[in-house]
Amino acid sequence: MSYQLGDRVYYVGSDSRILRDYGKRELEIVSVSLVHRVAVCQMVASGAKLVGVPLWDLKVATEMGHDDSLSRDRAAGNGTIQGCQPWVKAEFNSVAKTKPK
Questions:
Q1: Does the residue 90 lie in any domain?
Q2: Rounded distance between C-alpha atoms, residue 7 and residue 59, angstroms
Q3: Is the pTM of this model over 0.90?
Q4: How many domains are contained in the chain?
Q5: 3-class SS at 54?
Q6: Domain-embedded: residue 20
Q7: Is 21 contained in some domain?
Q8: What is the pLDDT along the chain (101 residues), one digit of tens a residue?
Q9: Which long-range contacts (CB under 8 A, 24 or more apart) does 25-34 make?
């Protein structure tokens, strides 16, 4: 799944504590680490942050039947994150250039 900063998502993972606090609330992606495959999200309504969420535990709001113009208007990213912070691009590029031993 390709995510962009600003995408509206829902937590769909199995952690009962996170589900209780964030499961039915719309979140916005504010930062992503491609190396660690985690995101920092904040609740749209209150601004409370959820840090270190695995990307596979997130579902884009439009995929859950909710209208979301941010996700709907995504540019073709071919698996990349568009508009990400410079440190994310640098982290991704340094890992991409590393050859396995």
A1: yes
A2: 10
A3: no
A4: 1
A5: strand
A6: yes
A7: yes
A8: 678 899 999 999 999 999 999 999 999 999 999 899 999 999 999 999 999 999 999 999 987 664 433 333 333 333 444 444 444 444 444 444 444 44
A9: 26/61, 26/66, 27/58, 29/3, 29/4, 29/5, 29/58, 30/5, 31/5, 31/85, 31/88, 32/3, 32/5, 32/81, 32/84, 32/88, 33/88, 33/91, 34/81, 34/88, 34/91, 34/92, 34/95
